[in-house]
Amino acid sequence: MRGLGLAFITIAPACACSCLPSYHEPPACAIFHKTPVIFRGKIIEQFGGHFNNALSRVQVVEAFKGLPPDVREVIVLGSIGAGYDWIFYLDKSQSTLDAYRKWLKSQSTTDLNPWPKLGKEHVYSLGFCCAHTTSIANEEDLKYLRARAQDKVPINGWVQGVVVQNWFPALNGAAAVFGAGVRVGVRNGSRHWESVTRGDGNFRIENLPEGEYDTWVSKAGFSGVTFAPKVSVPACGCGVLDATLETNSSISGMVLDARGRPAPDAEVEVAAVLPGGAVKWTGPWGRSDSHGRFSLAKLPVARIVVGSNIGGVPTRKLPYDPVHSPGTSTPANARMFYLRTEEHADNVILRLPPLYPFGELLVDVVWPDGKPAVGGARARVWWNGHEVDEEGAGWGTNRISLFVPLGKNYQITADWTYFENPATHYVAPGEPTSVLFAKSGQQATARLKEISPHRPR
User: Fold this and answer.
1) Contact, 136 vs 121, CB < 8 A?
2) What is the pTM for the complete model shown?
3) Residues 287 and 272 in one domain
4) What is the C-alpha to C-alpha distance for residues 13 and 82, in angstroms, rounded to an integer?
5) Which of 120, 149, 178 is the last residue of a domain?
6) Which residues span the domain enclosing 224?
7) Using alpha carbons only, what angle is made at residue 275 by residues 251 and 388, rounded to the nearest 5 degrees?
8) CATH number at residue 263
9) Is the per-residue pLDDT at 245 higher than 80?
10) What confidence tier does 160 reach under pLDDT thresholds 50, 70, 90?
């Protein structure tokens, strides 16, 4: 490292993303205007605690903003996903770096699986509070960042986003709003720009001067705009506007058990029917009352089914197979609904299937050498790729009690987490253990991937 320019940064892990619509992350162009340091780099050394005190030595591959020309390596320190503002500073002192590395090594461990992986290239945007770690930028990100860094950018920007119903995610367009009018402009101003959403709910408004805009979203039949915030458009960049329109439709009816009796406190949910006939949960969901009656409001304008445990597996919370109204396990045989925004469907019947018999499955978590993994063992049991149950062991024991349906073939995995202030030590699962669960009280063993040097003696 001698002879290299070095930046030492104590800061949040980076976040960067495309200018495509996103519910959770700002676009790269917005990040550029809000963060003091942006660069693309490759992690060449990393150690630290699990999700805290993580330190990475990053080789600068491409600088976009804020790094001095002679800086070739950056030391990034910070907790992953922290929700507060971070400070940063530059320090070329080798002694400062060595001292901090020595302190960090004394406080944490290297037997973890730190994120992101060594050798990966990521875009870091440092000095901005965000809920995500570094991101691998796509070509749209990089094209924009390179042009912006060289001041080779147009003057105007654009706004794009998606309009959905009741904040349901746009699952293959199932809850998207087609034909909604989107308008941006300056309130009491003379200019405004408009667009209409496509079939997937997305829209784009081009050629907007830099500035902050009020937004309006509407469509006939919907009850107005639930959420349409101000949007900021940077020069040459995009502002993201995700909005939602509410519906006033509802479905009500009765939940019955397998014998035809009212089923109190039963979970009821709605799923959209996707192209090809598959179903996907969209919400809303609720529970039947003490008399088995249920009512669900604010339904998406889409082909939907009503059911319980849709797409799931039997668990202690929902101890039966997926079911769709009136009482079928097959979505193709279910009753389909398509309700306008003000429509209501009453007297809907949902008959639950028989309950599975459950039993206690006892899992002993061990290290690869066969010794009991006490102090932080956890086991999960899986069926057909779905988690059926999860529990942790009590302190001082490696035995875990799981409650699962009898008569099925399961996969069991286990991990181990040990908290030792300020570090957290984690060991990943080994190969899954297969077991045919035949009777309550049956025992099984799950092995961890490796032995932690910090396991209790």
Assistant:
1) yes
2) 0.66
3) yes
4) 9
5) 149
6) 157-245
7) 70
8) 2.60.40.1120
9) yes
10) confident
